[in-house]
């Protein structure tokens, strides 16, 4: 059987081909799954998609009509998939429930230190042989407060690094993580965390309850000189409200690896076509903001785990097994 994989980055292609070797053939495409590209999947029983694929009812209907029966998403998040429609159409959907939390936590810290110590601005200056220090002053992290919204595996990994810096730890989640408590983390209400934290980092999934968890009110509750880091999902932050606060001169730094309207932009070269998104265009002009294109997970370790799990999900499907990563099970048990 040949598997069709959408949204494959150049670095990922040899890894995916090697992982499927001896099991199934795989055709890798650099285009993302959208309503326009969904017809390409006609005739493929199994497809694999990336985190920025759009699997709404129109796309899922096109896939089902073309003969697709299984979708193996190469990400943990699945907010981009209409699971109810997938179930109604009889489509099996699986995801990657776990990969290296250190990849995201370490990148979140990379963003935090980049905006705190003005690394991007300093690098751009030295390229022009401007070696002044004006405007590059940052702050020690030791003794300051890190507020971690979401203390699962990634949040815990972030907290361990913060603990290494000698920071006070505040946490917010639906349940306490004993490992974080052992680090000295104090669990508090969200409003208190936002008011006291010098650094606020987001590590919660994007759900209806967490959409715009950092809204206008939350932003106003934060310290004027706080750092805000989001390496989870763009929809957690109300970007227009964030721009309003930045225009008012607030926040020492903002590091965003995700953006709520990133689909159709991130992972693509838009340098010649330009970007029509006025909010994003305004956001990247602020000198205290660093925006990266959803690359926190992009390490050989994490991507390797994602691919290996995707292959296992496909093998479980073709062998008639229901694996632990299945979001929507197949309607019948039919081995291929």
Pick out its properties:
single chain, 336 residues, alpha/beta, Rossmann fold, 2 domains, seven-stranded parallel β-sheet, six-stranded mixed β-sheet, globular
Describe the structure.
With 336 residues, this protein is of the alpha/beta class. It has helices spanning 13-20, 57-65, 83-88, 101-116, 119-127, 153-165, 178-182, 190-196, 216-221, 239-247, 278-283, 300-318, and strands spanning 2-5, 25-28, 46-49, 70-73, 92-94, 145-149, 168-172, 186-187, 199-202, 227-230, 253-256, 289-291, 326-328. The strands form two sheets. It has a seven-stranded parallel beta sheet, with helices on both faces. Strands 2-1-3-4-5-13 form a six-stranded mixed beta sheet. The N and C termini lie close together (9 Å). The protein is globular, with a radius of gyration of 21 Å. 34% of the residues lie in helices and 15% in strands. The mean pLDDT is 95. Strand 1, helix 1 (13-20) and strand 2 form a beta-alpha-beta unit. It contains twelve helices and 13 strands. Residues 8-327 form the D-isomer specific 2-hydroxyacid dehydrogenase catalytic domain. This is 2-hydroxyacid dehydrogenase.
């Amino acid at each position: 059987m040949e598997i069709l994989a959408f949204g494959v980055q150049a670095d990922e292609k040899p890894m995916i081909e090697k992982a499927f070797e001896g099991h199934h053939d795989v055709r890798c495409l650099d285009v993302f799954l959208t309503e326009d590209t969904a017809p390409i999947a006609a005739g493929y029983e199994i497809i694999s998609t990336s985190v920025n694929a759009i699997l709404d009812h129109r796309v899922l209907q096109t896939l089902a009509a073309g003969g697709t029966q299984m979708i193996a998403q190469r990400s943990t998040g699945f907010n981009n998939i209409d699971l109810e429609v997938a179930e109604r159409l009889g489509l099996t959907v699986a995801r990657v429930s776990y990969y290296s939390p250190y990849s995201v936590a370490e990148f979140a810290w990379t963003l935090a230190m980049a905006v705190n110590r003005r690394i991007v601005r300093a690098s751009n200056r030295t390229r022009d042989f401007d070696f002044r220090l004006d405007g590059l002053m940052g702050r020690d992290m030791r003794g300051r407060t890190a507020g971690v919204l979401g203390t699962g595996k990634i949040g815990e990994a972030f907290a361990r690094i913060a603990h290494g810096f000698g920071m006070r730890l505040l946490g917010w989640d639906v349940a306490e993580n004993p490992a974080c408590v052992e680090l000295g983390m104090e669990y508090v209400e969200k409003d208190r965390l936002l008011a006291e934290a010098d650094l606020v980092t987001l590590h919660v999934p994007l759900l209806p309850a967490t959409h715009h968890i950092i809204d206008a009110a939350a932003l106003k509750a934060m310290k004027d000189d706080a750092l805000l880091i989001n390496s989870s999902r763009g929809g957690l932050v109300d970007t227009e409200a964030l721009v309003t606060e930045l225009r008012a001169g607030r926040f020492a730094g903002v590091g965003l690896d995700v953006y709520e309207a990133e689909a159709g932009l991130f992972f693509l070269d838009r340098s010649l076509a330009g970007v029509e998104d006025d909010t994003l265009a305004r956001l990247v002009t602020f000198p205290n903001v660093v925006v990266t294109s959803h690359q926190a997970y992009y390490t050989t370790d994490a991507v390797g785990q994602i691919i290996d799990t995707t292959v296992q999900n496909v093998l479980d499907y073709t062998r008639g097994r229901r694996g632990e990563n299945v979001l929507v099970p197949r309607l019948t048990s039919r081995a291929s």
